[in-house]
Amino acid sequence: MKQKKLGSLAALRRRKSPTISIAEMYCGPGGIALGANLSRVWQGDRCFRFQHAWATDYDPDTCRTYTNNILKDNSHGNVFCSDVRDLDITSLAHADGFLYGFPCNDFSNVGETRGLDGEYGQLYKYGIDYINEANPMFIFAENVSGLSNANSGNAFEKILNELASSGEHGYRLTAHLYKFEDYGIPQARHRYIIIGMRRDLNLRFEVPRPSGKMVTCRDAIEIPPISPNAKNNDLTNQSKTVVERLRHIKPGENAWTADLPRHLQLNVTGARLSQIYKRLDPTRPSYTVTGSGGGGTHVYHWSEPRALTNRERARLQTFPDQFEFFGSKESVRKQIGMAVPPAGAKIILTAVLKTLADVKYQTVAPSHVYLDGE
Predict the structure, then answer these.
(1) Each residue of 324-352: pLDDT tens digit?
(2) Each residue of 56-110: pLDDT tens digit?
(3) Full-prediction pTM beyond 0.90?
(4) Which residues pair with 41 in a beta bridge?
């Protein structure tokens, strides 16, 4: 049996330049990774920071986006563009930290919500396999708020239990439903993030306190103005009907709450999603930016009768304008909508660095679940 080398916290804290290697599964275009790149913690004259070891995703456009933005100045990292089911987990380099936003398709509140019984519901297990192999010092796992309801709550409990008992020592987990708009992100995006600290390190991650600062969608999109030459900023060609419909919808309203003439009303039976042709309220953070969906789901400007451009959506997700997405317009839309906001990831990963470096910070109690892993 191959000997599994465990990272030493004492050795990390003794390093002159404490660099923490990270590996990422289901990496997407790089929202979490960019947050890691931006995270720094100083302890005296020493700077704790992350360095990418490897990442993996199945989508070629996504992998190209990640490579050209996250790894352009990093000669150490690799991106494996492959279905995780085809990877040899045992061949992947061991890293100090493991990040993964396991597929949310079957846990989302939109759709069939099949949970662990769905096509993607079991893909979290490949992360467990890597943790068992590499025993990283910490885990960062992310998924949608619907995770806690899937399979009548049993899916969340099962995933937490498996994460807590994974590896040679197990992990102390802190699971929290982050409402990113409370942290200054210009978008009402709610996601579970589970941070696990390996139990032999005797560390416990605490949830960083929200800033309480509200950033409106208008400020995010307009300050500073987007350059006319910005990448991924092409307008969508709206039909005359859509333009006319949007002219009757006020900021903050959608196709169901607006006073629409009969010929502009939608003939829909069953569930009526609140985001359909919903205009942004410029005085509030955006509603959740999604990566897929048909007509009426593209996020709509508060005053102009049109959908947002991908660059405007990226602004709501806190990607900087120099971050270029690759692929078709719809591929880029998907990448942006599926990502974790980098500014939000930075806040949480900075708290991870502070935990490892023994630097105090302001905290709040986990909102939903804490599992000690004992």
Answers:
(1) 999 999 999 999 999 999 999 999 999 99
(2) 999 999 999 999 999 987 656 799 999 999 999 999 999 999 999 886 554 454 5
(3) yes
(4) 48
Note if the bond before 18 is cis, omega within 30 degrees. Answer: no
Q: Which of 79-88, 144-153, 208-217 has the lowest mean pLDDT?
A: 144-153
Interstrand relation of 190-198 and 207-208 (parallel, antiparallel or unpaired): unpaired
User: What integer pLDDT is reported at residue 90 of this predicted model?
Assistant: 94
SS (H, E, C) 249-285: CCCCCCCCCCCCCHHHCCCCCCCCCCCCCCECCCCCC
Least Cα distance to 175 among 152, 201, 204 occurs for: 204
Interhelix angle 154-164/125-134, nearest 10 degrees: 10
- Specify the amino acid at residue 204: R
How high does pLDDT run on average in the chain? 90
Going by their DSSP bridges, the two strands 78-81 and 46-57 should be labelled as parallel
Span 318-330, pLDDT tens digits: 999 999 999 999 9
| Catalytic site includes residue 63 | no
When computed from its CA atoms, the radius of gyration of the chain, rounded to whole angstroms, is 21
And the tokens for 373?
Answer: 């892993």
Helices (H), the chain: 9-14, 31-38, 60-70, 125-134, 154-164, 217-222, 240-247, 310-316, 329-338, 342-357
The total domain count for the chain is: 1
| CATH code, domain with 111 | 3.40.50.150
> CA torsion sign, 76 to 80 to 85 to 90?
negative
In a domain, 189, yes or no: yes
The answer to whether 37 and 77 have CB atoms below 8 angstroms apart is: no
| Residue of 27, 63, 104, 217 marked active site | 104
Instruction: Specify which residues 173 forms β-bridges with.
Output: 196, 371
Which structural domain, as residue segments, surrounds residue 101?
Answer: 9-214+339-371
Do the domain assignments include residue 293? no
Q: What is the mean pLDDT of residues 289-315?
A: 93
pLDDT band at 148 (very low <50, low <70, confident <90, very high): confident
Q: Residues 71, 79: contact at Cβ < 8 Å?
A: yes
Burial 194-219 (b: 16+ CB within 10 A, else e): bbbbbbbbebebbbbebeeeebbbbe
Pairwise CA distance, residues 373 & 216, whole Å: 39
